[in-house]
Amino acid sequence: MAPMGIRLSPLGIGVFCLLGLGVLYHVYSGFLTNRLSAYLLGDRQEPAAADSMVELRELLAVAVRAAELGGEEVTRVRKSNLLNEKQKGKTKEGADDKMTRGDTLSNKKMYHLIKNAFPGVQVNTEEAIEADDEDSVSWNHDIPAEIKEIIQNPSPVPTDSITIWIDPLDATYEYTENLVHYVTTMVCVAVNGKPVIGVIHKPFTGYTAWAMVSGGSNILRRRSYNLKTPTIIVSRSHSGVVKEVTRETFGNKTEIISAGGSGYKVLSLLDVKEEKQEHADVYIHVTFIKKWDICAGNAILNALGGHMTTLKGEEIIYTGSDGNEGGILASIGMDHDALVQKLADKIPSSGKKSPQ
């Protein structure tokens, strides 16, 4: 008698294939999660208790909501024209350092929403929070459908590894001049000092850009960038030195855009279709800058394959001091290392030279 062979029905073959695809999906999902964990935690691989962990998608949802709430305060105050403008002093670059009711009320809402949702996280914010200055604002624990659709894999990280940076009103100087298209509210989540989640919200148009490293984003890079003669965007409030450095580096005919707000400048590098949003190829800043001004933009650029470094090409660490002394070089779709080399002999020592 001839040996009997094993025969599978078409249904059996289909079930087998589906099971195989399911196994591959879970392996790939695990691979992505492990990549993110390795990027965030570095050498720290010891397990943490469940109650000492925070899920990054939830942090992103809260960050988006905080930026929106802050934006509501910013627009309300500006429309009332009761800014209560104050002078905090001078920045290290010599520009006026202003504060308004928009800054303080936005700061209060953003800070307390995040702290009420995640009491254990470290929150660094631009404006002071008094011990008795409480707010009952709360998060409803809802993760927007857009975030769930784009970022499908939970990514828990240890609570004590998190630092959140808040900028309740970026471009305050322009805000007082009613140049509101420059104004943003921003939130950044750093894990072990690495910028991982960035949210930039434009309160006067309602536009919000967000991204998570190794997760996803609701914003895209542009299709093309000018590699040979890039358009450079710089600060309008102290642009003397940076314009000089830029022209020495890229030539006297280089197009330079002067603009307010670091959030606005980062968005200029991306695919943002807003009426007054200008577009540039490289963002350069040669003097001291606060970390809450740049962390969110850094995270978004990292998530999209871009770069934000010091002028010397060094990564910026978002722990400890609230300031970055090394200037800013931000790009996407460009050869960032080549830009660093091009600037190497032109930048002021330590990026600290006063503007002219």
TrEMBL record:
It is found in: Membrane. Mg(2+) binds at residues 126, 167, 169-170, 293. Transmembrane segments: none annotated. Its main location: membrane. Pathway: Polyol metabolism; myo-inositol biosynthesis; myo-inositol from D-glucose 6-phosphate: step 2/2. The keyword Magnesium applies. One of its GO terms (biological process) is phosphatidylinositol phosphate biosynthetic process. It is a single-pass membrane protein. It is an enzyme of class 3 (hydrolase). CDD domains: IPPase. The keyword Magnesium applies. InterPro entries: CysQ/Inositol_MonoPase (IPR050725), Inositol_monophosphatase-like (IPR000760), Inositol_monophosphatase_CS (IPR020550). Residues 80-102 are annotated as: Disordered. It holds the Pfam family Inositol_P. Belongs to the inositol monophosphatase superfamily. This is Inositol monophosphatase 3. It comes from Pelobates cultripes (Western spadefoot toad). The lineage of its organism: Eukaryota, Metazoa, Chordata, Craniata, Vertebrata.
